[in-house]
């Protein structure tokens, strides 16, 4: 008996998942890659400002996680470069980048939580973006075969 031809990409879908779920997850992964790039560029810019000028950021109140602003600049610079590299990897479809993206996004969430007294509004936005990136990368099953 002849088998029916399967449409392109059908083998990538899970048997229990629908095509709409897969499309949302795939689109979310693409968006997560772009967000990693944008978050990385902004972290690099924050880092450069923190390294170059210690008086740009003002701290609001006392906070347990206090570092020198130059130290925060280097932390943001390194995390930003890692996010940019990982974002390019995700956009190219590299599976290694998805795992690193989750790890580096989690690291970015932690760093932005500790950065709250210096830029509270942006830190909360960056934390929300990091959580979305983690969710998006962990729920995309479009590249897995059944």
UniProtKB/TrEMBL annotation:
Entry's transmembrane regions: 30-52, 72-91, 96-115, 121-138
Pfam family, one: DUF7144
UniProt superkingdom: Bacteria
Keyword Protein transport tagged: no
Entry keywords, A to Z: Membrane, Transmembrane, Transmembrane helix
InterPro entries, A to Z: DUF7144 (IPR055568)
UniProt protein name: DUF7144 domain-containing protein
Organism, as annotated: Streptacidiphilus cavernicola
């Amino acid at each position: 008996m002849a088998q029916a031809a399967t449409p392109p990409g059908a083998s990538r879908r899970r048997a229990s998942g629908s095509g709409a779920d897969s499309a949302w997850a795939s689109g979310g992964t693409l968006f997560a890659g772009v967000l990693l790039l944008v978050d990385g560029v902004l972290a690099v810019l924050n880092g450069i400002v923190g390294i170059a000028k210690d008086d740009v950021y003002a701290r609001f109140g006392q906070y347990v996680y206090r570092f020198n602003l130059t130290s925060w600049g280097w932390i943001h610079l390194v995390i930003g470069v890692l996010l940019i590299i990982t974002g390019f990897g995700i956009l190219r479809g590299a599976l290694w980048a998805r795992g690193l993206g989750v790890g580096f996004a989690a690291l970015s969430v932690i760093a932005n939580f500790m950065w709250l007294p210096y830029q509270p509004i942006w830190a909360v936005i960056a934390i929300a973006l990091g959580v979305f990136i983690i969710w998006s990368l962990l729920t995309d099953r479009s590249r897995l075969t059944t």
